[in-house]
TrEMBL record:
The gene is edd. [4Fe-4S] cluster binds at C156, C223. One of its GO terms (molecular function) is metal ion binding. Its cofactor is [4Fe-4S] cluster. One of its GO terms (biological process) is Entner-Doudoroff pathway through 6-phosphogluconate. Residues 408-601 form the Dihydroxy-acid/6-phosphogluconate dehydratase C-terminal domain. This is Phosphogluconate dehydratase. Catalyzes the dehydration of 6-phospho-D-gluconate to 2-dehydro-3-deoxy-6-phospho-D-gluconate. SUPFAM superfamilies: IlvD/EDD N-terminal domain-like, LeuD/IlvD-like. Pathway: Carbohydrate metabolism; Entner-Doudoroff pathway. HAMAP family: Edd (MF_02094). Belongs to the IlvD/Edd family. It comes from Rhodomicrobium vannielii (strain ATCC 17100 / DSM 162 / LMG 4299 / NCIMB 10020 / ATH 3.1.1). Keywords: 4Fe-4S, Carbohydrate metabolism, Gluconate utilization, Iron, Iron-sulfur, Lyase, Metal-binding. Its EC number is 4.2.1.12.
Amino acid sequence: MSIHSTVGEVTERIVKRSHDNRARYLDRIAQAAERRPERTHLGCANQAHGFAACGPIDKERLREGRTPNLGIVTAYNDMLSAHQPYERFPPLIREAAREAGATAQVAGGTPAMCDGITQGFEGMDLSLFSRDVIALSTAVALSHQTFDATVMLGICDKIVPGLFIGAASFGHLPTVFIPSGPMTSGLPNPEKSRIRQLYAEGKVGRDELLAAEAECYHAPGTCTFYGTANTNQMVMEMMGVHIPGASFVNANTPLRDALTREGVRRALAMTALGNEYTPFGAMVDERSFVNAIAGVLATGGSTNHTLHLLAMSSAMGITLTWDDFDALSPVVPLVAHVYPSGAADVNQFAAAGGLPFVIRELLAAGLLHGDIKTVWGTTLDAYAIEPGLDAEGQLVWRDAAEKSGDEKILRSVDQPFSVEGGIRVLDGNLGRAVMKTSALAPERLAIEGPARIFHSQEALQDAFKAGALTGDFVAVVRFQGPKANGMPELHKLLPPLGVLQDRGQRVALLTDGRMSGASGKVPSAIHVTPEAVAGGPIARIRDGDIIRIDAVSGTLAALVGEKEWAAREPATADLSASHEGVGRELFAPFRAAVGEADTGATVFFRSAA
């Protein structure tokens, strides 16, 4: 199937605008690749330090320098359910490397924080910045220059993008991303959401709420709703940096272990010491990022990727913009309904056909670049397959399902849930914003209402508890951008706004903060840029101004006369309380240096955007 004309046009625009930066990046990694393997250029004392703690076989192989050495960068900790399974991965990886006649070493670790734990508390102000810290710590781990390839162990919200940015700085090395897999299904996500809303209304107590949450998040593995963590896995597979079908195989299973071993074998096969040298930074190109955007749109993925993909691409000299999302959205249909867009979790999605089915459908419609290179040693055309184990426990493959196993969850391109993708970009006199539409009823795609202004999510919650949020309105929660307080996710807004919407009020949210992959049924214009603390138009809104949020026309506007609007001074806010405590004082340089949301909200690569 030839590539869809719009997909081709968007790709060509990206290639053109990225030309100079991309050329400089490719030149840099080509120069780094000239030293192969890198560790043979180190001094004897340097090398001896690097293998001093190894066993005899590994030490001998490293001393000779003729076999590949695999660097493991791990985001393991046992506080995050998604990352706890990584505790047992290094021994598994080392064993697989030895079987292949190579060596593997843990190069270093990165932090991995959980938004689910910090949600609504001070630690969430560090969440987005943790992505860039992870990129820095990945660079530190690989700075010893003693590796021929790398594997990246990470799953959740900021971890995968951070690992990706760090790996891109060492783009001359082959890199495979290895997921840990989702936990098994627990309490259905809609039931969890219902109990949260009842708690917000005061109809159930904390004991009932905690019991429901513990039943939902109950085991090792990724959370089962389709938020940023699981969107990360989809993106990695669409870009060809996973082994095919690896994204949604449950944690701590024989199939998961087999896929991990296969990832190790592929990483070792791609080094400069063999005949399949595949540097990460050259393998991933503009087409790979277009595939990632198409995947986000087709599956109703996390809005966080309107930030992350921009930052990730910039690390490779490629310039994406929100306009690329907006141009692709009308031609990429929504083919998956996974919570919060639907009732199903990712395990049910996988059982219905999962990513292999989605990839096959999008390839057949010309909505993916099937000719991109992948870590599998093939092009993406070969990714419409599912992994399994034979009677001897060996990894085998079968073609993706011909039909969806459940059309409430997964559909063909010909009969989608929506003919357009799940994300729209809004523009107007309030700046630019992103809106997730995949979970919205059609009648909620456009809304007008008077502004109710808050400078924290706590202030809105207090107004809700006091019964002060009556009538139709647009909640304006500002001074939540990256420069203000690190751009936290504002999930505690959703239960009260959901309650009001269910009561018949027409409500919406407008914020320069984030809502991410768990954005649900309430219309939400998020990532507003320029942000309030930078004097953006959102800071000019006054209580009672009529606000229009319209995903159909792509409009974001305050319906205020031009002269009055131009004459208004932007509001200010005292943010000192959100700049200290829980480590936030250490991130003052990040708040000062960070770019706007529509350039990726990163402290890196701003000149590329």
